[in-house]
Amino acid sequence: MEAIQKKHIKTQFPILDQEVHGKALIYFDNAATSQKPKRVIDAITRYYTEYNSNIHRGAHYLANKATEEYEQARERIANYIGASTQEVNFVRGTTEAVNLVANAWGNLNIHEGDEILVSGLEHHSNMVPWQMLAERSGAKIIIIPVLEDGSLDQAAFKNLLSAQTKLLAVNHVSNALGTINPVKEMISAAHEVGAKVFIDGAQAIPHLSIDVKDLDADFYAFSGHKAYGPTGIGILYGKEELLLAMKPYHGGGEMIKEVRYDGFTVNALPYKFEAGTPNICGAIALGEAIAFMEDVGIDKIAQIEADLLAYATEKISAIDGVKIYGTAADKASVLSFLVEGVHPFDLGILLDKQGVAIRTGHHCCQPLMGHFDIEGTCRASFAVYNTKEEIDLFIKALERALMML
Ligand code: PLP
């Protein structure tokens, strides 16, 4: 039964039904971007073949239909993460969300001498915008140390919190190691000293159930393309009172209520942060991707992926010379590893020749790689459509590659 259901999930992803280099494709690069189910691809096709039009203020059928679908997608996503529609802003992705907050909130609230706590696990996109904010404001970046198992040093984190701490930036799940961070507890500790918290949920949204109110996150961001949706669309959630107090990020159409030659007034939420024609099709398709996850069920997705991760971890651990990076008890879907004496890129190429797609390199986490004194890792990352049979083939391919190297 389980096998039939899993097969059914995989058959919903047309791209997976192909050969590369004459071998059946095994796609284990899901942390970089997931594949898209047919229903998401169909939603994109439907938009462009049936009702492509610019949204809001339209006097005609297509514009009204596009507006309705766009706003329905916002509503679905808001419900899915436990937010109100005012608090759900469509952005290009996680990177844009961090930059938006670092500018529109940071420029008003971060001053010389303030401290921004950034976890040592962060992707460059949840680090560089804060470094840029620190540079222009005179604030200080303080890094929360990472322990040997790839978890954050919670005792050190608590010691770093002080009245100077104005912001905590941390990912919910590490893209490089798979660590699930105890963000609810971290948010609560940061709030005790009056700091706000930005959660990078890019790797959490495809794997975990997210309730932004239960977490009490001030800001929570994710990208659609890592959760079965298209590229170029993502979500920035922000608490309404914070979004209301922020200045707009980009100026232009849609974010204004009224414009005069001598100035403008700002539109209501969520349009205030959606200047210009948005990625209408992307937003609608992201709504469809969320509907896909709802239909499968996030608990079931998490269970399938946890089984895959445990199975792959056990199998790879039996290979001589393999070292796994990221061994925290609480992990999601990521298996990062090195083989003694083997360059990750060489291994990546030899796996590709056997049809297996993994990612190699620093995974946009150069400081974290530096912390472990390595240049990068090999990363296999799993999604709901992957199978244990694929892991068996991956392990065989890995053993064959190692014999060649
Ligand atoms: N944060 C994490 C944890 C990620 O894994 C990624 C992408 O790999 C990002 C942020 C950036 O996402 P995007 O490139 O979609 O903006």
Summarize the structure in words.
With 405 residues, the protein is of the alpha/beta class. The protein is built from 15 helices and 17 strands. It has helices at residues 2-11, 38-51, 61-81, 94-104, 106-109, 128-137, 154-160, 183-192, 212-215, 240-245, 280-296, 298-317, 344-352, 366-371, 388-404, and strands at residues 19-20, 23-24, 26-27, 88-91, 115-119, 140-144, 165-171, 196-200, 219-223, 234-238, 256-260, 263-266, 322-325, 334-339, 356-357, 359-361, 377-381. The strands form five sheets. It has a seven-stranded mixed beta sheet with strand order 4-10-9-8-7-5-6, with helices on both faces. A four-stranded antiparallel beta sheet has the order 13-14-17-16, covered by helices on one side. A two-stranded antiparallel ribbon has the order 1-2. Strand 11 (256-260) and strand 12 form a beta hairpin. Helix 3 crosses helix 11 (280-296). The model has no long low-confidence stretch (mean pLDDT 97). The chain binds pyridoxal-5'-phosphate. Pyridoxal-5'-phosphate (PLP) is lined by residues 93-95, 123, 125-126, 171, 175, 200, 202-203, 223, 364. Pyridoxal-5'-phosphate binds at residues 93-95, 123, 125-126, 171, 175, 200, 202-203, 223, 364.
